[in-house]
Amino acid sequence: MPFTLHGLAVSQGIAIGHVHLVSHALLEVSHYQVAPRRLADEVARLAAAVDMVRADLGELKTTADQQPGHAEVGALVDLHLMFLDDPMLIDAARQLIEARRCNAEWALVQQMELLVEQFDQIEDAYLRERKADVVQLVERLVKVLLGHPGRLPKKRKSDLATIVVAHDLSPADTIGFRDHAIAGFVTDVGGPTSHTAIVARSQGIPAVVALHNVRHLVHDNELIIIDGTRGVVIIDPDDRIVEEYTLRQTELALVQSKLQRLKDTRATTLDGEEVKLLANIELPKDALAAKAVGADGVGLFRTEFLFLSRDALPDEDEQFEAYRRVLKKMGDAPVTIRTLDVGADKALDSIGKRSTEANPALGMRAIRYSLSEPKVFLTQLRALLRASHYGKLKILLPMLAHAHEMDQSLALIAQAKVQLIERKQKFDPRVEVGGMIEVPAAALSLGMFIRRLQFLSIGTNDLIQYALAIDRTDEAVAHLYDPLHPAVLKLIGGTIQTGLRYGVPVSVCGEMAGDVAYTRLLLGMGLRQFSMQATQMLSVKQEILRADLVDLAPKVQRILKMDEQERVHEAVERLRS
Ligand code: PEP
Ligand code: MG
């Protein structure tokens, strides 16, 4: 019997395929009784998992020790090995199996929770944070016990498409889609501008999130349809429904192929204003997609994706090669590369800094993290500067709020340049440095940014999150995420206008830039540089080609003065009619 679920539509398109359930090891642990005669086997099962994890960690340690600059990774592995030997974890779990006649994974999780509670009471912040290491280690062990240390299916060739269904997917998981034949994804949780949703859009993979308990309503291999435009998921559809959606899929493909004709057309408004359309990319190979839609350059390279989901940080040479690849692919076009924006929902496995903060989005994120780890930051800056020799590279600093963050970053850039001069390595001495405006405090104190930086880029995803105090990854408050809130428009409009007044280029690189619903509004505010996922660029270009600024500008000025949300919504909708 087919049935339908409704969630948040976060990435457009239609996918028809078979369910692949992705596990979240710690959420999957069930509790069951073990017969007395099987208890020894259960204890042996735990011991075998411990041995396997110990061997994995040992290998990791050897790799870390052989790579210069990875002392931190080595230290982290040592810590995990130490917990593995701690009687409070494994021995206690073994005793629990015997005393309660329970399964090994459940015993481990019980013991982990006990330890986490104890860690929470420690005053020293550093030691308190180590509870994250215990959780990571137990998750590793549980995955081995459950028999699925890997998470995604291998690339299949001719099968019907695979649709990933999960409780939640980290950005690192979604980036892993690239190496697998995934046609879409569906999750219990998530919001429209979570990084997971962004990655799905960048891949052109339809996605629906915030379905609450979809994982428990579907079976592995079941047929499923995702309508990423309407936020609908149909489970076990009959032939008639499949036929209808196949038809829609074909229609969508036709629209896309028509749009492709605009690839080489310049993005010029009806009254002759030229607009630059830049691409957001997550990995160097995305530059190909940017080229394929005729992007004027890269407006945002989110470098953190080079750092996610790996056991050790990429070293200077690896980063340099990655940045240079993008520059080479983009030829003379500008390439704006953002320094590491980790933290919040993009935790780094390799340095064990998985967040244990109560409010990670307000915590050690982005520039704050880089400034707290100057060695990691300097390594990235040297790699960026070296790559600047091969094209038109610009450095973009994320999540700035304070003058001293810019001063320290600029000082570190200067230091990186001196180091390269000493090494006789080439770089562009005039490389431009810009900043993201994604904290309301920054949008309200632009003078200090303009005095220090050469360009600005508005990150509307975070700007909205911080202005409206809603976690962008939390589906429970997703309905409050409103790009058209009058306060948000004042922050965006004010930044664009200030940039124009002082001759400092301003772009928008948040998801608003790639949504045709906002193209005319942003144009009317004075925006002339949009940076978005390549998959959205041609639709936005079509909207620009149909826009008349003489008509738009005064209407948008009136919208900026409105202070009733509903009136703003109506007026923005009218801009398109
Ligand atoms: C933003 O916040 O709008 C942005 C572009 O950065 P990210 O989505 O990577 O946080
Ligand atoms: Mg951001």
Automatic annotation (TrEMBL):
Task: Name the GO terms of the biological process aspect.
Answer: phosphoenolpyruvate-dependent sugar phosphotransferase system
User: Which class of enzymes does this protein belong to?
Assistant: transferase
A Gene Ontology term for the protein's cellular component: cytoplasm
Active site positions: 195 (tele-phosphohistidine intermediate), 509 (proton donor)
Per UniProt, residues of the PEP-utilising enzyme mobile domain are 162-231
Highest taxon, organism lineage: Bacteria
Swiss-Prot/TrEMBL catalytic activity: L-histidyl-[protein] + phosphoenolpyruvate = N(pros)-phospho-L-histidyl-[protein] + pyruvate
Cofactor annotation = Mg(2+)
Assign the protein's first listed, main location to one coarse class: cytoplasm
Enzyme Commission no: 2.7.3.9
Q: What does this protein do?
A: General (non sugar-specific) component of the phosphoenolpyruvate-dependent sugar phosphotransferase system (sugar PTS). This major carbohydrate active-transport system catalyzes the phosphorylation of incoming sugar substrates concomitantly with their translocation across the cell membrane. Enzyme I transfers the phosphoryl group from phosphoenolpyruvate (PEP) to the phosphoryl carrier protein (HPr).
The family assignment reads: Belongs to the PEP-utilizing enzyme family.
- Protein name (record): Phosphoenolpyruvate-protein phosphotransferase
Tell me what organism the protein belongs to. Denitromonas halophila
Question: What is this protein's gene name?
Answer: ptsP
